[in-house]
Records
---
Amino acid sequence: MKVNSTMKTKKEIVDNWLVRYTGVELEKFGRYILLTNFQHYVDLFSTITGCKVDGTDKSMSSASHDGITIINFGMGSPNAATIMDLLTAINPEAVLFLGKCGGLKKRNSIGDLILPIGAIRGEGTSNDYFPPEVPAMPSFALQKAVSTTIRDHNINYWTGTVYTTNRRVWEFDDKFKSYLNNIRAYAIDMETATLFTVGFHNQIPTGALLLVSDSPMVPDGVKTLEKDKVNSKMFDETHIKLGIKSLEQLINKGETIRHLKF
C-alpha cells in the first residue's frame, strides 16, 4: 500500500484506516460483508468455511472466503458508524449485520430471529448523518434475500422495528421500559439504526438479521454470563450460516440489490 503522509479527503482517510483497523489490504476484502459484534462469530465463520482469521491484533478482526468477508467491528453505535464509513473504501455490494438484540415482546423467545423492517434512531450517532426525521431503513432487496434464505431452511422469524440506543445498562429503569412499550418496538439493540442510516448516507445497501439473546423487560430475562454461554452454543452457528447463505444467494444469482437510485 502506498504511504500517504497527508490525508485531506474522506477517500484518503478510509482507504488508509480500513487497512489500519483490520490489518487487511483493500483488495483482499470480499464484495459482500457480514458485520458482527463478536470475535466468536468471526471464529465460527473461519471454522465453517475453513479460512483463516486476520487482524486478531487489530481493532477489527476479520475473515474472508469466496467473496464474503466477516468483520467484528465492536459494540455500539459509534463503532457502527465508523465501520460503515470505512467500508466506503471498498464500496461493497451488500452489508449484512448479524447482531443480537433484546426481545421486547412477551411472544419473543430466546433464539428467535428478527428481520427488521426499520429501526428507531435513539442512539444519537446517526444525527451526524441525517436530520432526526429521516427514518432508518434497510435495503429492501437485501432483507428479501435474507427472508428467502430463512424460509428455505424452514425457520420462522419475526419482523418489526428495532429501537437502537447508546445506553447499555437500562434494565432496572422502569420509566425507560415504559417508553419502550409505548413506541411498540419489537427489539432493542445498540447498532442497527446507525448501520442503516450511515449505510444509506454512504450508498451502501445494508440489512440486518437479529438474534434474540435475552428478554430484558423482565428481571429473570436479563442476560447473564451463564445464560449467554448456553444460548450462544445453541443458536450462534445457525445465525452465521443463515448470513452466509443469504449473501451467497445474491452472489450466485447475480442480482442487484440497489433497489433505489442513491
---
Amino acid sequence: MKKLLFVVNPKSGKEQIRPKLLEVLDLFSAAGYEVQVHITQRQKDASEAVARWGEGKDLIVCSGGDGTLNEVISGMMELSAPPLLGYIPSGSTNDYASSLEIPKGTMEAAKNVLEGVPFAIDVGRFCGDRYFVYIAAFGAFTEISYQTPQDKKNLLGHQAYMLESVKGLTSIKPCRMKVEWEDNVLEEEFIFGMVTNTISVGGFKGLVTQSVALNDGEFEVLLIRNPRTPRDLSNIISYMFLKEEPNDYVFKFRADRIRITSEEPTDWVLDGEFGGSRQEVVVENLKERLQILRSADKGAIL
C-alpha cells in the first residue's frame, strides 16, 4: 500500500479544512493510500514532522497557507529522496497556489493531488540553512504577514493585509545596502526589497512580471529605494498597489544568486514568516529541486 503523510494546519485561513477533513481522508484512503495525519501545533512543527516521518513516503500533502507550505518544503529539503508534494491551500492569500493555478476549493484541490501531474519547482535557499518557495523580502510592509493576528486574517482575509499596510506607512525606515548579482553592484538606501518566484505577492499580481516561470532557475528581484519627497512615496505606493508603470525608485532584474549586505541588521520574511535579522544575506536558486502536483490540463511547464 502506498504511504501518504498529510500535514494539516487547522487554523489556517478561515479554517476551511475542518469540515472537509474526514471527506479528504476518505478520498485518499479510497485511492489506496495508507494515510498518516499530523495536525500542526506550533511554528516549525510542520517542518519537523516532515523531516521525522517523510522518509519513505510516496506522497506528502500539505493543507494550510503559504507559511505552512514553506515549513513542509523546508522539511522535505532535509530528506534524502523527497517524494511528490500535494497542496490543499487554505490560507488567507495563497500566493503560491495561485501561481500554480491549484484549485481553491478544498475537495477540488484534494482531487487535484490524486489526478494532477508532477511539476518541478525551484526552491530558494536563504543563507545556506533556510528555504523559501516564493518570496524572501525585507523592509516596508514585510512584517505585516507575520504580525497580523491569525483571527484578523481569518475574518478579513486579503483585506487584513491592506489595512495593516496602511498602518505601516508611517514607520518606513530606509536601510543602506549593497546588492550584488552576476557582475552587477548596486548601492542605495532601500525601503523595500523582494526576491520572488511567483506571480502574486500578498494577493497583488502587479508587483512582479506575469512572464514568471517557476522552474527556470531564476528569481525575479524588485528593490525600491528611499523616496525623497511625499510625492515620490505616493508614486511608489501607486506602483505597488495600482499597477502603475515603474519609476526611478524601482529596480527590477532577474538572478539565480544574489548577495545583500546592510549597514545594520535587517529583518527578513520568508514566505510570510519571520526569517531572522541579518546584515549579510545570500539567496540561491535551487533549480527544479522538488516536484509538486498541479492540474493535469496545465501540463508539465508553465
